[in-house]
Design brief:
The structure holds 2 protein chains of 2 kinds. Helix content of chain A is 31%, strand content 22%. Chain A has helices at residues 5-29, 33-36, 65-73, 92-95, 162-170, 175-203, 205-228, 283-297, 306-309, 331-349, 415-421, 529-537, 543-548, 563-577, and strands at residues 41-47, 52-55, 86-89, 101-110, 113-123, 152-156, 159-160, 233-241, 251-260, 263-267, 312-315, 367-373, 380-386, 424-431, 447-453, 457-463, 484-488, 494-496, 500-506, 510-514. Chain B is an alpha+beta fold. Classes of the chains: A alpha+beta, B alpha+beta. Chains A and B meet through helix 1, helix 6, helix 7, helix 8 and helix 11 of A and helix 3 and helix 12 of B.
Chain lengths: 578, 702
């Protein structure tokens, strides 16, 4: 029996819509802001053979980890799953991301047979461990990062297993929130199950399975078409993490891409060994970077499923920072190493598809957590955020100013909400002048954000990158500015912070963060002087930078371009360059 | 002297004028091509035409819907953005540009933020600071404000938005700035965030004030011109404008708050559906509007259209949902609509993986579908309907437009069948199936995703193409009843005539429900009610026709999303308890659970004041015999129905000849000037009292 192409197309739409609808149920019924506002979750459908059939466009860092999670997580349940069961786990070495991401898998039965799985993964605001939020910047073992849950039958006959829930929730600082989120995850899977059963009632098992097969083949073919448009060859790149959180040693990540007919090989040989600090990235995170970049460089409308994986072979040597072994800590791998992984891959692809890549984006998520004890009620408070920076320049257009890039896309919390809830007062939230890497297409500028502590004392944690090694430019574009973090005491004394630290702060101390700018694309001397002038008028580029980096001479009184001097200066600079 | 109520709906292709005689209920329809560069010109022409066709008439009210606001923001139609400025708290002038720091497409390395409405050089900062309790931490530096005036004048700034931190609690600094602006620059338009959107969340509030500021010069200029022009034609009636929430407001109100009329056009369709529902006694409606380029879905529950409090203007749409961050957020009441690129003119193509795709590109009016014979070579949804025999193969618009079925066949054969091994009919049926599944999705968004079961709804199908797809959509969503209004193509313009006056008020009060002073809230409601009544009185709305609905935006402490819950007046302790109880219930209905021991937080109080307008009295015909008159069948042609997988000889009815009470068993096609209704084989069509068609699934078939 064959399935007609129109039915395949309709089923394709239905499967993707199912994963999107699961996401809406999850988001609407969840408690924690991570899930509700930041959409830090992923919803998927797997086929009977445990291959990814559909995934909604949620968060990139889960892209490659779901298939691993389903295949590894269900290994021990062969033949032991029943209708109404759901499997829960967060062990990063099985689930493919860090501990706060909890995976829930629901097998879908029809006439006694497993015909599919609805599955989701969501970031819980706390899973225990040494630091609130379970993202300690100085963990040396995974045991310090929170409770490790191996794959367990968390739900049996549609009822949560009370004893398991009790063990899990006893290890979490905010058990009510997590329980609410787990219920939301369960609701999302149940919806997925219902929709799949509706599809079966309508089309029958055989048609559904054949259609899924065809959808996967379709994605595979389209990815292969895209690969075949790339020049063949071997292309390498490397970049560094500036420290490990526990030592100042920099850590190398290296990737080599081999483009063949119908196939891409990506090899991480040459990457540094795993480290004691929490910046190890489990294999799932590494793969997510690979698929994220591929999606960006090909057509993102290609439906995400097993077919997309087939033409890509990835080799990551075990025991390296991109494929560590237990019990290495991994919390920061998701947020910081994942960004550097993308930088390395884009640098390699810059040699393959120079017109489709961007220069380096800010390359960090600037995780900042501050917390203490509320004087009035004695209860602890914590505020956590990630802060945007510059996007790299692209062929034809400047990098975006002040935006989240690559593996994260979380929204900020309104200042009016923060100040109403927490004892901090904001002083500044603005674009950071001169931070975008000079280029024909300028890198996006970073941000300056500062606030003052109003409580007697608090603990401040920073987990960031790109304060030493700046985001690189491409094709003659210069690098963006490095990030900076300061504490300014009431006596105006400035203390520069390390990019991964936990310190005590006191009343009236001001925390100031300047986030990195994106790298420039193309030679800055080729930038149209009118665009440089516009940036100067917008106070995003100073007169000095305009002259020194762009060779655009602007009269500081009339604010007009001095065309003659500009031409002369640029001519001279070009000669010097050659 | 006969009094007429007149509505004018400016669409992308046509400008419609509908006039309704207040005495006889007689309706006049006028359709004239739009004049996008000067929209008012087509309006004048429709009026001239109206006066030509009537004598001794008086226009009692003019109600107008237009997309001009969206067009300004999209930079379309030669409408340049006016020069505007922003005044913000020191240290925070970039809030408007940073936004929520997310990007609206994740897998796009060439992503761009929407065009800046106010460049950084015109975003000014002033020393001042209000704290989270409304306390003044730093007094306003008035000299600094004054020193900005010469600059604003020199730069010919036309409008200024003022958006300060925490101004939703304490407006004093924004008002002081306004005073200085008005004194120094009396002609300048001023948009205060504390007046336009007095709600917390600085980015969204600032954005609303900025969008408002940017619209003020253009909208007030446009409405002034329009009013002057129609005055010249002797029309003295008040000029009213459709708002995005489905209410109408006067020109003066709109000039100060143009941000309220952004989705003026699409709202009219939902209002029309709601009115029709009342007429037919249907309370739960899914409204479905399919035109040339897009399809739109809305929901009406308990006879009330669903509204939302935020919308992204000029934003991009992905699978029917507006993508957050792709446009300019506006906090105001909007009809809850989902939209997709599926209209008659939507282009069909085969992608590099050999899958059939529909949209998002549209052939528009020029060249239009291949069958128009105007040079379009790419197949469209309309071409598929022609091939399937659903559309008249000779002409449309009662003969005004010739149809070339051979060109439809050629386009589909070449662009689809040569790439995917499908027969012509299979390909055309496939196009319709894929289009229907995209449209079913937007109907799901406004029902299933909002926590409602679509089976509790009746589908109202309109727009030129809507009634052709009704049966398939209903089957997809398991609906059993469809209503096609008597004039699907002009339905939205008719909707304008049924709209009521509406004025909405909102104030942020962020307190736990356990801790609020009932009196404080009641005072706010009363203050709003007095303001609303005053505005309605000006429109000569009698007291008996005034309605006041008080609402509260509530959430569990710690949540970041609110639910709007109706409450009642006067606001007492009992009412408070009942409102909290209703919140738990709505939370359960929307999200599947409630947490009764969790504290409930009040975020905003709202009052919606409505001035009911007398509705057109449609003349109902008495229901006659069941069988349609013989002359109603003009021909038979072969129509393809996918459940039969073949062409079936199908009777073609002419709408005008059908009488109320007639019933027609599918398969059948009913043709009229502005639309074609397709009755699937397992459906029955019945002509209603108002010339409407009611389609029901045959019992035993479902």
């Amino acid at each position: 029996m064959s399935v007609d192409p129109i039915t395949v197309e309709v089923i394709k739409g239905a499967l993707i819509y199912t994963t999107e609808e699961m996401g809406i149920v999850l988001r609407n019924s969840a408690y924690s802001p991570n899930i509700k506002e930041r959409m830090d979750f992923s919803c998927t459908i797997f086929d009977a053979k445990r291959r990814l059939a559909a995934q909604a466009e949620h968060i990139p860092v889960h892209l490659g980890s779901m298939q691993l999670a389903v295949q590894k997580g269900l290994e021990r349940f062969k033949g032991k799953l029943e209708n109404g069961d759901m499997i829960l786990f967060n062990d990063p070495y099985i689930s493919g991301t860090h501990l706060p991401d909890i995976t829930l898998i629901c097998p879908i039965f029809y006439e006694g047979e497993t015909i599919a799985y609805s599955t989701n993964k969501a970031h819980h605001s706390d899973v225990g461990g040494k630091a609130p939020g379970s993202m300690a910047g100085d963990a040396t073992e995974i045991y310090q990062e929170g409770i490790i849950i191996p794959p367990v039958k968390f739900i049996k006959k549609n009822v949560i297993h009370k004893e398991i829930a009790s063990i899990v929730l006893s290890n979490i600082r905010t058990p009510e929130i997590s329980l609410g989120d787990l219920r939301a995850q369960m609701a999302a899977n149940l919806l997925g199950k219902r929709r799949i059963l509706e599809l079966i009632e309508r089309y029958g098992t055989e048609t559904l399975q054949k259609a899924i097969e065809k959808i996967m083949d379709y994605s595979e073919k389209r990815i292969q078409n895209e690969i075949n448009r790339m020049p063949k060859g071997v292309f390498s790149a490397e970049d560094y993490l500036e420290n490990t959180g526990t030592s100042n040693k920099k850590v190398k990540i290296k990737a080599t891409i081999t483009v063949k007919t119908d196939q891409l090989l990506i090899d991480y040989t040459g990457t540094d060994k795993q480290v004691d600090g929490p910046i190890n990235a489990v294999l799932g995170v590494t793969l997510s970077g690979v698929y994220y970049v591929l999606r960006c460089l090909t057509d993102p409308s290609i439906p995400m499923n097993d077919g997309c994986y087939r033409p890509v072979k990835v080799h990551v040597p075990e025991g390296t920072v991109m494929n560590p072994t237990p019990p290495r800590p991994v919390a920061g791998g998701n947020v910081e190493t994942s960004q550097r992984n993308v930088d390395v891959l884009l640098k390699a692809y810059a040699q393959i598809l120079p017109e489709k890549v961007c220069a380096a984006c800010q390359g960090t998520m600037n995780n900042v957590a501050v917390g203490g004890i509320n004087q009035e009620n004695g209860k602890p408070w914590t505020f956590y955020e990630t802060i945007a920076g510059g996007f790299g320049g692209r062929k034809g257009i400047d990098g975006v100013d002040a935006v989240h890039s690559h593996m994260t896309n979380t929204m900020n919390t309104p200042i009016e909400a923060i100040e109403t809830t927490y004892p901090i007062r904001f002083i500044k939230y603005e674009l950071r002048k001169d931070s975008g890497g000079p280029g024909k297409y300028r890198g996006g500028v970073g941000l300056e954000r500062s606030w003052m502590l109003l409580a007697p004392s608090a603990t401040l944690s920073v987990l960031a990158e790109r304060t030493k090694i700046p985001p690189w430019g491409l094709f003659g574009g210069k690098h963006g500015n490095r990030g900076e973090h300061y504490i300014i005491r009431p006596n105006k004394k400035q203390i520069k912070l390390r990019s991964k630290c936990t310190i005590k702060i006191e009343k009236d101390d001001v925390f100031l963060v300047r986030t990195p700018g994106g790298g420039g694309y193309g030679k800055p001397l080729e930038r149209y002087p009118e665009l440089v002038l516009q940036d100067v008028l917008d106070e995003l580029v100073s007169l000095e930078t305009a002259e020194k980096e762009y060779g655009a001479i602007i009269d500081s009184t009339t604010m007009e371009i001095d065309w003659k001097s500009t031409k002369q200066y640029r001519h001279k600079q070009k000669k010097l360059d050659t | 002297m006969v009094k007429y109520r007149v509505s004018i709906d400016i669409g992308g292709t046509f400008t419609d004028l509908v006039a309704l005689s207040e005495e006889s209920g007689e309706v006049l329809d006028i359709k004239i091509p739009s004049t996008p560069k000067e929209p008012a010109r087509a309006v004048i022409r429709t009026f001239r035409e109206f006066f030509k066709r009537t004598s001794d008439v008086e226009v009692s009210i003019v109600i107008h819907a237009t997309t001009i606001a969206t067009n300004v923001l999209l930079g379309q139609l030669n409408l340049e953005l006016p020069k505007s400025a922003l005044i913000a708290t020191k240290g925070f002038r970039d809030i408007i540009e940073i936004g929520r720091q997310n990007r609206h497409q994740i897998y796009n390395l060439f992503i761009q933020k929407p065009q800046k409405l106010i460049p950084r050089i015109f975003r000014f900062e002033v020393e001042e600071r209000i704290g989270p309790k409304g306390e003044i931490l730093t007094p306003l530096n008035k000299n600094q404000v004054r020193s900005l005036m010469p600059k604003l004048e020199r730069e010919n700034i036309e409008s200024v938005a003022v958006a300060l931190l925490f101004s939703y609690i304490n407006q004093v600094h924004e008002h002081e700035i306004e005073k200085i602006l008005r004194k120094a620059l009396p002609k300048i338009h001023v948009s205060l965030s504390s007046e336009i959107a007095p709600e917390y969340r600085e980015y969204e509030r600032t954005s609303t004030a900025v969008v408002n500021a940017v619209l003020m010069p253009t909208i007030s200029g446009y409405l002034d011109d329009l009013q002057r022009d129609i005055r010249k034609l002797g029309v003295k009636a008040p000029l009213c404008i459709m708002q995005s929430d489905g209410g109408i407001a006067t020109k003066n109100t709109v000039t100060k708050k143009p941000v309220g009329m952004i989705e003026s056009g699409p709202a009219a369709g939902v209002i029309a559906s709601a009115y029709y529902g009342k007429l037919l006694g249907i309370e739960n409606i899914l409204s479905f509007d399919m035109g040339g380029t897009t399809a739109k879905a809305g929901a009406i529950r308990d006879a009330t259209p669903e509204v939302v409090s935020e919308y992204e203007v000029a934003g991009k749409v992905h699978s029917g949902r507006i993508i957050k961050g792709s446009g300019y957020p506006v906090r105001a009441q909007f009809m809850d609509l989902a939209e997709c690129s599926a209209g008659g003119g939507t282009i069909v193509w085969v992608d590099s993986g050999n899958a059939l795709q529909v949209g998002p590109i549209s052939a528009g009016a020029e060249p239009g579908p291949a069958c128009y014979g105007k040079g379009g070579e790419q197949p469209t949804v309309t071409d598929a309907n022609v091939v399937l025999g659903r559309l008249n193969p000779e002409y449309l618009l009662g003969g005004d437009m010739k149809i070339h079925p051979d060109l439809s066949e050629k386009a589909i054969s070449k662009e689809v069948c040569e790439k995917i091994p499908l027969e012509l009919a299979e390909a055309a049926a496939g196009i319709i199936r894929i289009t229907n599944s995209a449209m079913a999705k937007i109907l799901r968004i406004v029902s299933v995703e909002r926590g409602y079961d679509p089976r509790d709804f009746v589908l109202v199908c309109f727009g030129g193409a809507g009634p052709m797809h009704g049966c398939a959509l209903a089957e997809e969503l398991s609906l059993t009843k469809i209503v096609v209004p008597h004039n699907p193509g002009l339905f939205s313009a008719h909707g304008l005539l049924t709209a009521d006056f509406k004025y909405n008020f909102v104030r942020a009060i962020m307190k736990l429900m356990d801790e609020i002073e009932v009196k404080e809230v009641e005072t706010v409601f009363q203050e709003f009610a007095i303001k609303g009544a005053k505005l309605l009185k000006k429109q000569r709305v009698p007291k008996a026709n005034m309605r006041f609905i008080s609402q509260m935006d509530l959430r569990y402490l710690g949540q970041s999303y609110e639910l709007t819950i109706p409450t009642s007046a006067p606001f007492t302790e009992d009412v408070l308890r009942q409102t909290v109880e209703n919140f738990h219930k709505k939370h359960t209905a929307t999200y599947g659970y409630a947490v009764r021991d969790e504290p409930v937080e009040l975020v905003n109080v709202r009052l919606m004041t409505t001035g009911l307008v007398e509705k057109p009295k449609l003349k109902g015909e008495p229901l006659q015999r069941e069988n349609p008159p013989k002359e109603a069948v003009i021909s038979k042609r072969k129509v393809f129905f996918e459940q039969n997988a073949e062409y079936i000889s199908t009777p073609i009815y002419i709408r005008k000849k059908l009488k109320a009470g007639n019933s027609i068993h599918g398969p059948a096609v009913i043709e009229q000037y502005d639309a074609t209704t397709v009755v699937y084989p397992n459906w029955v069509a019945e002509i209603g009292r108002f010339g409407n068609i009611i389609l029901s699934i045959k019992t035993g078939d479902h």
